[in-house]
Design goal:
This protein is α+β, with helices and mostly antiparallel strands. It is built from seven helices and 30 strands. The chain folds into six domains: 31-105, Beta Barrel (OB fold (Dihydrolipoamide Acetyltransferase, E2P)); 120-189, Nucleic acid-binding proteins (OB fold (Dihydrolipoamide Acetyltransferase, E2P), Beta Barrel); 203-276, Nucleic acid-binding proteins (OB fold (Dihydrolipoamide Acetyltransferase, E2P), Beta Barrel); 288-358, Nucleic acid-binding proteins (OB fold (Dihydrolipoamide Acetyltransferase, E2P), Beta Barrel), CATH 2.40.50.140; 367-450, OB fold (Dihydrolipoamide Acetyltransferase, E2P) (Beta Barrel), CATH 2.40.50.140; 456-539, Nucleic acid-binding proteins (OB fold (Dihydrolipoamide Acetyltransferase, E2P)), CATH 2.40.50. 18% of the residues lie in helices and 37% in strands. The strands form six sheets. A five-stranded mixed β-barrel has the order 1-2-3-5-4. It starts with 12 loop residues before the first helix and ends with a helix.
């Protein structure tokens, strides 16, 4: 019925307001529609019910257990606003409408879930318990989360989620059957995708950002930058030496890193942590001047030297040749080991190559600078044979000072093919200093000079024509070698050996070891050659016998002539 039929003039404000109030008054008496969710106010509480004013002509009652928490406490009080709906299944009691808060809440929850499912929104759920094949999750109603939907990676500890709130997405929903299937995996992936897109939109190469250590590997660290992982290579963690990332970082650490390389298409981010700080090598030329002394820690020992950490990111090398003035060093491990604190002298700095050369032996004076003060030519020294070569023997007479005994200075007489025929490695020997050259770090020694030269003595005391006693020592095709004095030999050529009945071409007339008198027929002192002769002795004896015979014959003749003079008649 229109306002005109009721005799009301719509153009008059006073009449319009009265009409509106009348409609509101009558609406109080209209019964609520089935399934309609109403806002009510709690006006009273009894042991069994909560009285709720829903604006109807009479108040409604809600069973008190619908407002009772698990611990028995009542969750509402007078004056609270609650959502309810008429419970048509229940009869009206004592003039009150029977209301249900639970049905109203459930109805609203399903509406919310359907809206979230339709709009692909995230909802929050509390994990209740582990069930066959997955988890039960309270999203307002009990939903099922399959194990495959818990995480994007295999997730073995489902118990760790029980009792916790997790974001989920609704995969399936059937309101009529009351079935809901949810996924935490989808929610995490969406959240990660959003964070990833946001992160990629805010970073550039050269950006300095923070992240959280997510995983450690042998080759580097994965850093969670917010939805996207960046790789921090082990070589970019520190300017110092790091064998494994775990030496510097742990999972969960928050770190500040620099974006070194960014590939948005492949969503790859290369990070550097050491690049956030200044390169310590930029200050090396100022901090480590050649000749200065430094203290560092041994971080590595190799066959050729030891690496010393002078400060984080700056290492120096002590080469094996710079560890001791002695040449006996076989391995740097004999001098230092990893972890030792050592003092060294800076020898050279090459900043562009990140190299600092260090030395330990320079902490002490070079013994060659004062060797001339301790030794003089002609002085007697003693040392150990350290090394043998084809041309001589190196003898260490003190730490860092080696002298060379040339093969020609080992003996006066023997012709050596190798020094090992006269001395052995490790043998302690005495020698005479022949020459000192500190500038070239050379010291010449002689062993034969410890004894007088047997050849020189022999040449000074004998001359050609002398008779000498000798012993046959060895035979050759061209003659016999005869020892005339210790370490002095002469040669008696075949032409100087008288022929004998037993002599053949290859068999000497005289046996080895035979001692005979020989005549010196030749002496060459510069070549240490002495020529001997047996034939000369035989010829001399023959001449002597002949001369004796002639003397005797002449004497007999004279005697006869004298006798005839005394007795002419006889």
């Amino acid at each position: 019925m229109s306002a005109e039929e009721d005799g009301l003039a719509p153009g008059f404000p006073g009449d319009q307001e009265d009409y509106q109030h009348m409609l509101e008054d009558y609406s109080h008496y209209a019964p609520p529609a089935e399934g309609e969710v109403l806002q009510g106010t709690v006006v009273g509480l009894t042991t069994k019910h909560a009285l709720v004013d829903i604006g109807f002509k009479s108040e409604g009652m809600v069973p008190i257990h619908e407002f009772t928490a698990p611990d028995g406490t009542i969750t509402v009080r007078s004056g609270d606003t609650v959502e309810v709906m008429v419970d048509r299944a229940a009869s009206q009691a004592e003039g009150y409408l029977v209301l249900s808060h639970t049905r109203a809440a459930r109805l609203k929850i399903w509406d919310t879930l359907e809206d979230a499912y339709r709009r692909n929104l995230l909802v929050s759920g509390r994990v209740l318990e582990k069930t066959k094949g997955g988890l039960s999750v309270d999203v307002g109603v009990v939903a099922f989360m399959p194990g495959s939907q818990v995480d994007s990676r295999p997730f073995h500890n489902l118990d760790s989620l029980i009792g916790g709130d997790v974001p989920v997405k609704i995969l399936k929903l059937n309101r009529r059957r009351g079935n809901v299937v949810v996924s935490r995996k989808a929610a995490l992936e969406e959240e990660t995708s959003g964070r990833k897109a946001d992160t990629l939109s805010h970073i550039e190469e050269g950006s300095v950002i923070t992240g959280v250590v997510k995983n450690l590997t042998d080759y580097g660290v994965f850093i969670d930058l917010g939805g996207i992982d960046g790789l921090l290579h082990v070589s970019d963690i520190s300017y110092g030496r790091i064998g494994h990332p775990s030496e510097a970082l742990s999972v969960g650490d928050e770190v500040t890193v620099k974006v070194l390389k960014l590939d948005r298409d492949k969503e790859r981010v290369s990070l550097g942590m050491k690049q956030v700080a200044p390169d310590p090598w930029s200050l090396v030329p100022e901090r480590y001047q050649p000749g200065s002394r430094v203290i560092g820690r041994v971080v590595s020992v190799t066959d050729y030297g030891a690496f010393i950490e002078l400060e984080p990111g700056v290492e120096g090398l002590i080469h094996i040749s710079e560890m001791t003035w002695s040449r006996r060093m076989k391995h740097p491990g004999k001098v230092c080991k990893i972890g030792d604190q050592v003092e060294a002298v800076v020898l050279e700095v090459k900043t562009d190559q990140h190299r600092v050369s260090l030395g330990i032996k320079q902490l002490e004076a070079d013994p060659w600078t004062t060797v001339a003060e301790r030794y003089a030519a002609g002085s007697l020294v003693e040392g150990r044979v350290r090394k043998l070569t084809e041309f001589g023997a190196f003898v260490e007479i003190e730490e860092g000072i080696d002298g060379l005994v040339h093969i020609s200075d080992l003996t006066w007489t023997k012709r050596l093919k190798h020094p090992s025929e006269a001395v052995k490695k490790g043998q302690i020997i005495q020698a005479v200093v022949l020459n000192i050259d500190p500038g070239n770090r050379r010291l010449s020694l002689g062993v034969k000079q410890l004894q007088p030269d047997s050849w020189e003595t022999f040449f000074h005391s004998h001359s050609p024509g002398d008779l000498v006693r000798g012993r046959v020592t060895r035979a050759a095709k061209f003659g016999l070698f005869v020892e005339l004095a210790p370490e002095v030999e002469g040669l008696c050529h075949n032409s100087e050996i008288p022929p004998g009945p037993d002599r053949t071409k290859d068999v000497p007339l005289l046996p080895i070891g035979a001692e005979l008198d020989f005549k010196i027929v030749k002496m060459v002192e510069s070549e240490k050659k002495i020529g001997l002769s047996l034939k000369a002795i035989s010829e001399e004896e023959e001449r002597t016998r002949l001369e004796d015979y002639h003397r005797q014959a002449a004497a007999a003749t004279v005697t006869m002539e004298q006798a005839m003079k005394r007795n002419p008649k006889g």
